[in-house]
């Protein structure tokens, strides 16, 4: 807002609030506070404030400008309002976000948003997908088909009976496969030690059945 426009705003507010006191220095003081705002936005804000109370201050005008900008930015794609697709490639995330921010700023400033033509919107349909996108694989053991049980990518491995189980060794890689093998060996050794201890204590009956009551065979 220029100094001359601030004079216009001061006269407008005086017309809205005839009981409010103004002098020849008022426009200069108001320009120091409101110079960074457009005249149209300040006039609309002053009218809104004057509709609620008999006096209007520069601080109240600024607060109302911010409220009106926020309201327009939040509802620029609401019911009955023209939707504008950001003019940027959605695959270019920084450019798309910049276009979206610019669009919201224009909406907040009160600029009319124009719907883009259908031909523009579908211009990128059917274009070739870059190989670096198509070749991306899901990380982790579920990122490949399981050669043991045939589980597809993203699906868990299964036992012969159909129950879910931890990924097979061929699916988790050499390091994890070694860990799985070592765990199996540890469990077998623990079972062997348990059976040997039971035999030493004389608690095994025929066919390897344990006598938990501790009685004699």
UniProtKB/TrEMBL annotation:
InterPro entries, alphabetized: Phage_Znf_bind_put
Domain DNA-binding phage zinc finger, chain residue ranges per copy: 138-185
Source superkingdom: Bacteria
Start-end of Basic and acidic residues biased regions: 173-188
Pfam families: Phage_zn_bind_8
Residue span of region Disordered: 158-191
Protein name, per record: DNA-binding phage zinc finger domain-containing protein
UniProt source species: Streptomyces stramineus
